[in-house]
Amino acid sequence: MTKIVQIITLLALACSSLLVRAEEIPLRPQHPDRHVVAKGDTLWDISAKFLKNPWQWPQIWQLNREHIKNPHWIYPGDVIVLDTSSGKPVLKLVRESVTLEPGVIVTPIKGDAIPAIQPNTILPFLTKPMLISPEELKAAPRIIAAQEEREILSPGTHIYVQGLPESARSVWAIYREGEPVKNPENGEILGNEAHYLGEAKLLRPGQPATLTVTQAKEEIAVKDKLIAMEDELNPAYIPHAPDMPIQGQIARVSEGINETGYGRVVVLNRGEEQGVERGHVLSVLRKGASMVDPESDPKKPVTIQLPDEPVGLVMVFKTFPKLSYALVMQASQPIHAEDVVSTP
Question: What predicted TM-score, i.e. pTM, was given to this entire model?
């Protein structure tokens, strides 16, 4: 009985130790005591000023899930103060006028709340259709002809589109079917990337409908298809680690290149069905190689699997049922397709 009590006590102490470790929030060695939020700041940038692990932003703010999903509460001019008086680091927001030095007063600046990350890099992925299912592809409206039978459709050209819904919105993206995105684990097609060509504006509804080309990034031709532009311009989320284990792989590197790095977009083979959500920060790991133990018997070689090596961090900014788009936030080495992603 005494042994059982001792075992239970040891287990309790071990669990307590794990919980304490899980709550630890390591600060950067040269962290500031306060930061005045400026236009152009992002939640990730500010977090990185204070924390070694920027995805621990919600813990240091003591945020619940509702705050994580709706972070429109930090504006240029706000002052973020680090409070360690309780023994644990906590960030606090000061919105009234603050004296930083004698004669220097900082007052809040009116404007939009700061974003999680700079929107310039991901804006095309938010407003333009970048992924389409086989069902959407089959049903998409298509260009059947153009003004004066033109073959190359430039801005200002009238185009005639079959299959446009009657209660259609006015602005449409023009695209061509791109390469399928395959799951590197089993070859399953997760969707087709839509190759963005330009935009068109509805002039007259009907079958066919009449539209005019307003933008042309690349050559537009008859048989190209249309899909509705999305309205989402300012996604609201806070960088945070998943609250459950997630593991997957990079299914595709944006623009079809073999490797990528900081500030570029990658496609992950995990999505909403696996619990991935916007703002999730995942570690990128280079899969360890297999090797034969040099000390093993050549007749009975023993294979050793080397551990995966961390090479970066990505943050998810757009999700689909089976995959998601993520931005590379840190990269110590080039990041490749089929690299592993997991909860940090």
Answer: 0.71
